[in-house]
Amino acid sequence: MDPVNQKNMAETLAEVLPRASIIGVVESPAGVAGMHIAHYALPKGTELKEVKTDLEALLPNPRRTKAKAEFATVDSFLDYVKRHADERTVTWCDFNPQTFALNFTAVIDEHTKTAAGWRSHTARLVPDMSAEWKSWKGMDTKPLAQVAFAEWIEAHEDDITAANGLPSSLQMHEMATNFVMNEERILKSAVRLQSGGVNLTYIADPDKGTTEAMKLFEKFAIGIPVFHGCPPWSITARLKYRNNSGKLSFFYELIRADRVHDAAAKELIQKIREGLGGVPLLMGSCA
User: Fold this and answer.
1) Any idea which of 82-96, 104-118, 129-143, 205-219 has the lowest mean pLDDT?
2) CATH code at 97?
3) Euclidean distance between CA atoms 46 and 166, whole angstroms
4) Same domain, 164 and 193
5) Count of CB atoms situated within 10 Å of the CB of 152
6) Which of helix, strand or coil describes residue 90?
């Protein structure tokens, strides 16, 4: 085909065939930069399409802040919230008094009375339990053989406090040492003393019928933090034993540890409430 005729045919088709055309353009709304929306009319048999061109990545700054910050300490959480808080900011505290689950979520761009917020900028704190609390709660009511219990007491003697006439860490250490010395001996009797505690009598020499006695403290106290980085709390524990054919095992029971946990949680909530410095703290959660 003649090149001239070929060109004329292309031009003719371009004139008679339906073409796509822009029927509307929406520029960025006031205060929203970097957004361009165009509406196109396409030939019959095709669909009307909306083409969005978001140029936010080319802007000097994002249009709005998006972040889900997670914190490990109270101080870091408070510093971040106070750094970013404005009149919209609200902090939610979700505390379950049955399970003691506790977490804090600050929503920097929360809803207000007059305008909805994006709720896409948040800071979250889930307070971790202290290592001492995990250790003592983890072994609560679990029986151990004499030597194993003695080793446990020795490893954690720094947590033991002398309070209200209860034994000191040194006295508990001496008792643990006696546990080891009497490991292979058979228990003959156990007598509860009026002053508190139990007097254990072991058979020292079965052939000679000699015995040796040691005192088992009935209670002792520990001073440990409930939450990591928080002040310690005093907890009293009952010391108990089980006699299995003359062989003893020992365990302790923390007395009302639930009340201590509840009080420590409420103390931490109050500390954060005061540390927020005017940012509202609401009890509950809002998804």
Assistant:
1) 205-219
2) 3.30.720
3) 87
4) yes
5) 19
6) strand
Residue-number span of the structural domain to which 190 is assigned: 131-255
Lookup: tokens for 17: 């065939």
Strand ranges of the sheet holding 160-161, from the earlier edge strand across to the other edge:
144-145, 247-254, 232-244, 219-225, 160-161
How many residues are listed for the chain in this entry? 287
Residue (of 228, 28, 12, 217) closest to 126 by Cα position: 228
Tokens of 208: 């000679």
Answer yes or no: do 235 and 220 share one domain. Answer: yes
| Rounded-to-integer distance, Cα 279 and Cα 89, Å | 7
Q: Between these two residues, 42 and 120, which has the higher pLDDT value?
A: 120
Q: How many domains does the chain have?
A: 3
Residues 6+ apart with CB under 8 A from 131: 228
CB-CB neighbours of 216 under 10 Å: 19
On whether the CB atoms of residues 86 and 108 are closer than 8 A, the answer is yes
At position 245, the amino acid (one-letter code) is S
Instruction: List residues bridging with 100 in a β-sheet.
Output: none
Contact assessment for residue 251 and residue 143, using Cβ atoms and an 8 Å cutoff: yes
What is the C-alpha to C-alpha distance for residues 167 and 178, in angstroms, rounded to an integer?
15
Q: Tens of pLDDT along 61-109?
A: 998 999 999 999 999 999 999 999 999 999 999 999 999 999 999 999 9
Radius of gyration, CA atoms only, the chain: 36
| DSSP class of 80 | H
Please check whether residues 168 and 232 belong to one and the same domain.
yes
Same-domain status, 47 and 72 = no
Give the mean pLDDT of 219-231: 95
